[in-house]
Design a protein that fits this description.
Radius of gyration: 26 Å
Helix content: 25-40%
Number of helices: 14
Number of strands: 27
Distance between the termini: 30 Å
Mean pLDDT: 92
Strand content: 25-35%
Strand order of the largest sheet: 3-9-10-16-13-12-11-24-27-23-22
Length: 488
RNA sequence: AGGGAUGUAGCUUAGUGGCCAGAGCACUUGGUUUGGGACCAAGAAGGCGUCCGUUCGAAUCGGACUAUCCCUACCA
């Protein structure tokens, strides 16, 4: 377990991998581009998942589950959709293996070829809309607000644990509405929900905005996004919410009879966040000593370590404190392992990102105090054992808040407004980060800027005042600055 | 998918044609320890990513494949 993390400033990518591995979050698997999510990593994901699920339900959504396999013909019903995903689909062609007639292991049984190939879902719009056709007949069936927790497969060429894996876990919401307005409201409601989750639970500040035509989801009318900034000053698309218009309803012929007894196509949204959020969480907060988990998402919020080793009266004090902490709704673990020394446990706790560590030793008990160490700032303080639970209860939200503030400050320092292409290049190649600049609104300009600088338009921000200016590339008039950055 | 690099034990790695592949960490056993990643001793563990070649002889040379990392490209 004695492992060191590569310094962030030396090799950011290696630092990231070290955190993921040394904190016990995930590992590469035997299958290309796939990862094994280990218990500690999965526990954090579960906390994120549970909170999101609660928020979906509070806004009237229900969960359901649709098949993993999608008939190939479904995928091609929406022209843009299939074009967007065709290049990264895993395809099932056979349903049986047989003993190799030439000896050795097993081979695909050629007689078991499927009449129609099945696609392992890269996303579920098509199979869900094919189902919605049967579910929706009347305006009384609407809105239909369904979410599914699932895994999807996108055969990506370049993969990176949590950030881009061939298979990933996510939730995908698919809603159907009677009117355009309702669908748009839903799209934005979820965008706000995502932003709230990112900021209040992950302590990861995000910028809400709409994607340009070039960056839009395949098959969407509008794609909204939340964009976060990582510690290497690159942007991460943390979640998307799509207004699909009537595209999928038309492709799958999903109509309903409205109150005026007229038939119309339904209006749709889809939205999702994935295990990529784990990557965002890691890259937003962690340092060279390991992971830092915001208290609201930490599987274990407080870890108690007996010093130098467990035994009465330390055990009694620890158990009493544990009960008090549990009564305050705090998750706590007491590390009685006698095989590991305290220093080892300290380092291990730091690697795993546990927000608060409590040390209880004989000397402390003589003074009726405990040692409280914060993971985020590394500050240690001595606290009277009476009332310690309350102290911790107050401390956790402070840590949560300070992590968020620190991330906001970092983003602030790495956000620049520029008015010329030269300045733009200087910032992109220098300190990086978010760049607000004027753009003439054309895809040609967007692509050209990307070719020149590798920075892309992350979004057209929503909370941004309009301002007359001229495009940094073409000089053509622009009414609003858009958000650029190099992205993951 | 294109370009570059790498692949030796769970991890980090030494070893560029020749006795049974060597080490540190981790692991097992015993003992001494325990206020920031303990120490001593003894042990177990790999046939060098895979396959095919060259060779009297291959971890070392060649080829193909595969995985990982970086740069393009693509995305949640």
């Amino acid at each position: 377990m004695a492992k060191a993390v590569t310094p962030r400033t030396q090799d950011y990518s290696q630092w990231y991998t070290d955190i993921v591995k040394n904190a016990g979050l995930a590992d590469h698997s035997a299958v290309r581009g796939c990862m094994v999510i280990k218990p500690h990593g999965f526990a954090i994901w579960e906390n994120m998942r549970d909170q999101l699920d609660k928020m979906f339900k509070e806004t009237g959504h229900v969960n359901a589950y649709f098949p993993l396999f999608i008939p190939k013909s479904f995928l091609s019903k929406e022209a843009e959709h299939v074009e967007g995903f065709a290049k990264e689909c895993a395809v099932v062609t056979h349903h049986r293996l047989m003993n190799d007639p030439n000896g050795g292991g097993v081979v695909v049984d050629p007689s078991a070829r499927l009449e129609e190939e099945l696609i392992v879902r890269p996303t579920s719009e098509t199979i869900i809309w094919n189902t919605y056709r049967d579910w929706i007949n009347s305006y009384r069936d609407l809105p239909l607000l369904i979410n599914q927790w699932a895994n999807v497969v996108r055969w990506e060429m370049r993969t990176r644990m949590f950030l881009r894996t061939a298979e990933f876990l996510w939730q995908e919401g698919h809603t159907a509405h009677a009117t355009l307005e309702e669908a748009k409201e839903e799209t934005l409601r979820i965008l706000d929900l995502y932003a709230t989750f990112a900021e209040e639970y992950m302590a990861m500040p995000v910028i809400k905005g709409v994607k340009t035509a070039n960056e839009r989801f395949a098959g969407a009318v509008d794609t909204y996004t939340i964009e976060a900034l990582m510690q290497d000053a690159r942007a991460l698309q943390a979640g998307t919410s799509h207004f699909l218009g009537q595209n999928f309803a038309k492709a799958f012929n999903v109509t309903f009879l409205n109150e005026n007894q007229k038939s119309d196509f339904v209006w749709a949204t889809s939205w999702g966040v994935s295990t990529r959020l784990m990557g965002g969480l890691i890259m937003t907060h962690s340092d060279d000593d390991g992971l830092i988990i915001p208290p609201k998402l930490a599987p274990t919020q407080v870890s108690i370590i007996p010093i130098p080793k467990p035994g009465s009266p330390i055990d009694e004090a620890a158990h009493k404190l544990m009960e008090e902490l549990k009564a305050e709704g705090i998750t706590v673990a007491y590390d009685r392992d006698t095989r590991k020394r305290p220093g080892f446990k300290f380092a291990e706790n730091e690697l795993k990102g546990i927000p608060v560590r409590i040390g209880i030793g004989k000397r402390d008990l003589e003074k009726s105090q405990i040692e409280v160490a914060r993971r985020d700032t590394k500050e240690k303080s001595f606290v009277p054992i009476d009332g310690a639970a309350r102290y911790i209860k107050d401390l956790l939200p402070q840590i949560q808040q300070q992590l968020f503030q620190k991330a906001v400050d970092f983003r602030q320092e790495h956000t620049t407004s520029v008015d010329s292409l030269d300045d733009f290049k200087d910032v992109v190649n220098g300190k990086g980060g978010f760049i607000y600049a004027h753009w003439d609104g054309t895809t040609e300009t967007e692509v050209k800027i990307k070719e020149l600088t590798k920075a892309t338009i992350r979004c057209i921000p929503m909370d941004q005042e309009s301002e007359d200016g001229s495009c940094i590339l073409t000089g053509k008039p622009s009414k609003q600055r858009v958000l650029f950055a190099k992205a993951y």
